[in-house]
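Budget justification note: compute hours in this period were largely spent on complex prediction jobs such as the one shown. Inputs:
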Amino acid sequence: MTPRSRPLPKAKAISCPNCGGTVELRGLGTSLHAACVQCLSILDVSHPSVKIVQNFENAQRRTPKIPLGTRGKLKGKTYEVLGFQTRAIYVEGTEYTWDEYTLFNPYHGFRYLSEYAGHWTDIEPMPSLPYSSGAGSTEVHLREGSGTPLTFKLFQTAVARTVFVMGEFPWRVHVGDEATARDYTAPPLSLSEEVTGNEVTWSRGRYLDGKQLWQAFQLKGSPPAPQGIYFNEPNPYASPKSLWAITAFFTLALIVLMIFTWIMSRNERAYHGSFTFASGAGEPSFVTPSFELKGKEDNVQVELKTDLNNDWAYFDFALINEDTGVAYNFGKEVSYHYGRDSDGSWTEGDNSDSVRIGGIPGGRYYLRVEPEMERSASGLSQYALPKNIHYELNLIRGKAVVWPFFLVMPFLWIPPIFSSIRRFGFEAKRWAESDPAGAGAYSSSSSEDDDD
Amino acid sequence: MTKLHAIYSLFLTGFATYLGYTGFSFNSGDEVRNVPRSVRDNPGSYRSIYSNYHRYSGGK
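Corresponding output:
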């Protein structure tokens, strides 16, 4: 008969020597202390003659969220809730309490549940003791089996005090018991070290979803909603490492493809000419000799180099296909001004500029050019003298285009940056509550001493 | 998420490569069809829709 298929033994009942109420003992001789659910007196049940260890007048009663005697399955094993205690720490004058449940299976022993602000942890005895990196280290390591040791970071040090007890416990529990508790975390796992006098107890926990727990114990209603971020709560946001690896790969790919595109671009001068333009001296437009634009669809860039001096000129272009009669109209203003004012010297524009149009099919073309500029700086055209400018015109076929690579690069980085911010934001909130040195924590008795 | 990001990155890289390789420009000029051959001999007879509208507006 396997442990799973064996029936769970029934509870034994005793009378409370304080109130006479019935105290059920489910621990089958493993419990040392039990608290009467009626009068809350703590009884020593390790001997046949039950003795009162502690009793209380007008003790504040607390109701466990999982009632004593409830049975549920954790990791495929049936456990029964034997005991319930509330413990507290005091940080900067504020009491923080959490609940602990003692679970028992006669074939598998004890395990525990703790609950703080809707966050549940399944706690079980340690298979092996952790080891520290060295004196003063805030990390401990736990090796289980032949795997890589897990590293746990110290999250909090505090003096934990037992403030309420109900049910059975496998240790001699008292209200007012104090222990120095250190919590280490490697979400969703946690390690807790409790020091009482010369005794050190370690336990290992795993964060538990409240809804799963409610299902496991078939509890009515829904579990309390978790508040805030708990010290061993798993980060709901996945590690961005893989996103960064993908981004790094594609960033490299973009750079390589950009260089490849730049090398492979035609970047060929299809036409070059030098001209002089005199404003107001007859018809300004002219056409260039025909030239060949090679390849299929590609861009064309017209580069203008002028001797403009505190002046501007506008160039109207029509790139006309000799064979098809299709024209592509575009223009470019070139302006170059400079001077000096109360702010000092200034310049604006440049006497060289360029314009690019895309999607031009290959073929024989000629360029119609129509320059335009004011006749004189005075603006009084009837008295103005014609002005001359000299300019060079270069027509480049298949100019390398690299801006799309720079354009998409930030979009490539958005997902890992966003993912990292979310993940590290969660961790920052978690660790904002950390107090590894226990600087803000003190025991209730020391606080009372301080008050005196 | 990782798979989605890989697809997204592949799309962006492919898009950038396509634009770069084809020499894409936002300005593709204003296309006019059936321009008469006489423009070659008489350039003044052709006026694009933008000619003679330009007035300089720059300068400090």
